[in-house]
Amino acid sequence: MTIEEIIEKANKGDIECMILLGDSISKNESIDTAKKFELALPWYEKAAEAGNTNGAYKSMFIHGMYGFAKINIGIWDKAADHFLKAFGYAKQVLSNPDLDVQVEYSSRQNQQVYCYQLAYCHYWMGNTKLAYN
Q: Whole-model pTM?
């Protein structure tokens, strides 16, 4: 299958092609790392929105990385947005009863980290009530 066919099928709602397209973008050595994730994320999110656990898992990690990047430059509100999305994707992954043990463990660990980081962001934004919840 050509890349054009993959894009066409992904645009028509083929979940496997969405994941394949996201993976091919994120592994493309000729694209800058930050740009790779920016281009791959929408495809993973579309797959996740269609109920795909793999898309949710990959979206979780990208939003987590974005959250940490925003914390490092002090953009607390954007970091909180990304950690909230990452937490939601982790929740979606964990709702799948057929998870591989490693994926389940990784998702639970990351969900806890995202929850903590979300509280940390709210604390630094002065939202102490949200931080303690």
A: 0.92
